[in-house]
């Protein structure tokens, strides 16, 4: 029974709709929750894949949050072993940084629903194939990654050019949140810290507008997201080639 390792940064940002898909395949999930256990030891050798979730912190916070550096070392180890890695939002930024790319503030935050456009490479990508060439996705971020050298740029938005990338055959970074359902969106909108971030963002829409757009778009996104996640999970346990990674400048 393959075991998957999941890095979770805060309780408010769980696996969401990914959780039942993983369990339906019979995979065992091992969570490392850094909100509860910031000093958790990270031995990834026993696991067949890694999923790194989002969180309100940023890559630049790693001097004050040592678990972020520990996570990057663990991501590096998984990549060296040729195992599948999926980074979502903060997780994608950590993955990109491990691969030598800078993580910066985006010009404007993206909070709510935004059209995502796949690149030509994204259209041909075997994992992202179920996503329409242009489709609304849920976002909540103020930072962005650059596309790492040697990686394939898969998707963009009007507000943020770097939305998704693939490194090798089985490492993916998604800036957006395909794992959301309506209940999780509402959970974020009800969270005081997240409400404060939205209120201070300067964006023209409020929580009620996001709720209305969620009712409009969530079913379509979930259908596509489930197929994307199933494609990623197909990579778990498949023989992969190992990589020689960039020098560890981020350390």
What is the secondary structure topology, with strand pairs?
Elements: E1 3-8, H1 18-24, E2 28-33, E3 49-52, H2 66-80, E4 85-88, H3 90-98, E5 103-118, H4 120-124, E6 134-145, E7 152-156, E8 164-167, E9 171-174, H5 182-190, H6 192-199, H7 207-233
Parallel strand pairs: 1-2, 1-3, 3-4, 4-9
Antiparallel strand pairs: 5-6, 5-7, 7-8, 8-9
Walk me through the structure.
This protein is of the alpha/beta class. It has helices at 18-24, 66-80, 90-98, 120-124, 182-190, 192-199, 207-233, and strands at 3-8, 28-33, 49-52, 85-88, 103-118, 134-145, 152-156, 164-167, 171-174. Helix content is 32%, strand content 24%. Helix 2 (66-80) packs across helix 3 (90-98). The longest helix is centred in the C-terminal third of the chain and has 27 residues, at 207-233. The model has no long low-confidence stretch (mean pLDDT 94).
What does the largest sheet look like? Answer: 9 strands, mixed
Report strand %: 15-25%
Radius of gyration: 17 Å
Structural class: alpha/beta
Q: Tell how many strands the DSSP assignment holds.
A: 9
Quickly list its features:
alpha/beta; globular; 7 helices; nine-stranded mixed beta sheet; 251 residues; 32% helix
Please outline what is shown here.
This protein is α/β, with parallel strands linked by helices and 251 residues long. The chain has helices at residues 18-24, 66-80, 90-98, 120-124, 182-190, 192-199, 207-233; strands at residues 3-8, 28-33, 49-52, 85-88, 103-118, 134-145, 152-156, 164-167, 171-174.
């Amino acid at each position: 029974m393959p075991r998957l390792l999941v890095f979770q940064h805060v309780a408010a940002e769980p696996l969401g709709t990914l959780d039942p898909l993983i369990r339906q395949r019979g995979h065992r999930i091992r969570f490392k929750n850094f909100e509860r256990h910031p000093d958790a030891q990270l031995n990834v050798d026993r696991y067949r894949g890694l999923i790194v979730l989002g969180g309100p912190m940023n890559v630049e916070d790693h001097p004050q949050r040592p678990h972020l550096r520990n996570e990057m070392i663990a991501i590096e180890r998984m990549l060296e072993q040729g195992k599948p890695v999926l980074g979502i939002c903060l997780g994608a930024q950590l993955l990109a940084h491990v691969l030598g790319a800078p993580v910066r503030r985006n010009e404007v935050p993206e909070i709510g629903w935004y059209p995502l456009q796949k690149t030509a490479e994204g259209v041909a990508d075997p994992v992202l194939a179920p996503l329409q060439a242009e489709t609304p996705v849920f976002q909540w971020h103020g930072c962005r990654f650059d596309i790492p050298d040697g990686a394939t740029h898969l998707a963009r938005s009007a507000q943020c050019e770097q939305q998704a990338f693939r490194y090798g055959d089985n490492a993916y970074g998604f800036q957006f949140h395909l794992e959301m359902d309506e209940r999780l969106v509402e959970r974020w909108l009800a969270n005081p810290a997240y409400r404060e971030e939205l209120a201070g963002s300067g964006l023209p829409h409020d929580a009620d507008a996001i709720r209305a757009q969620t009712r409009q778009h969530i079913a379509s996104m979930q259908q596509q997201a489930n197929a994307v996640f199933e494609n990623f999970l197909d990579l778990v346990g498949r023989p992969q080639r190992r990589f020689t990674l960039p020098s560890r400048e981020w350390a």
